[in-house]
Prior knowledge:
Elements: H1 2-17, E1 23-27, E2 37-40, E3 45-49, E4 56-60, E5 67-72, E6 77-81, E7 86-91, E8 99-104
Parallel strand pairs: 1-3, 2-8
Antiparallel strand pairs: 3-6, 4-5, 7-8
The protein binds copper (II) ion (CU).
Copper (II) ion binds at residues 31, 56-57, 92, 94-95, 98.
Amino acid sequence: MRRHFFVSLAVAFLAGNHASAAEITVTMAGSSYQPARISAAVGDTIRFVNDDSDKHNVFVPTAGFALDLGTQEPSQETVLTVQKAGLFEVECVFHSHMLTVVEVK
Ligand SMILES: [Cu+2]
């Protein structure tokens, strides 16, 4: 009982340290990023989970935010840390209809 109390305190402290940074999960099932629009803050991480049976990709063509996280096979994950405020698009190079928009405040 007593030990459990101290463990709970430690968890609360660690969580408090990172209160300003959130982790947002984006899934890819059915060749579709979910959610299709994301609100994030600088410092947040976006975790892209390929829960589909096809390979996908995280590609940002937006000037100033451009990046390519490479081919993501089924069950693989990639993480993008949001560096600055603005609006950028995430696309999949294999499926041109796949799109999610990230708004960073
Ligand atoms: Cu794709």
